[in-house]
Write a structure and sequence with these properties.
This protein is mostly helical. The protein has three helices and no strands. The protein has helices at 11-33, 44-62, 70-81.
């Protein structure tokens, strides 16, 4: 991705960043579930399944399983460094 590596940060700081990113995913999932932004063809069961899937993903982020995910990695780097560097080469 780039020269910023997650392992360059102390484990407790990395975990704190994971927690912030996971909290974002959980909050976003709950807000979406409670919104009216779904198409009329989406059932309540489908909405519930999407919520469960999103909450499971947030748990995986918190556990460090999704560190390789491009979006998660970018958010982690931002939380750790305050920077949003280009992740792909020019």
């Amino acid at each position: 991705m780039n020269s910023m590596r997650l392992n360059d940060y102390p484990p407790e700081k990395l975990q704190a960043a994971r927690d912030v990113v996971a909290d974002f995913w959980e909050d976003n999932a709950r807000k979406l579930r409670n919104s009216d932004d779904y198409g009329l063809h989406i059932t309540d069961d489908q909405k519930g399944a999407l919520l469960v899937k999103s909450l499971r993903f947030a748990n995986r982020v918190r556990a460090g399983i999704e560190d390789h995910n491009f979006t998660v990695y970018q958010r982690l780097i931002f939380e750790l460094s305050g920077e949003s560097p280009a992740l792909l080469p020019k």
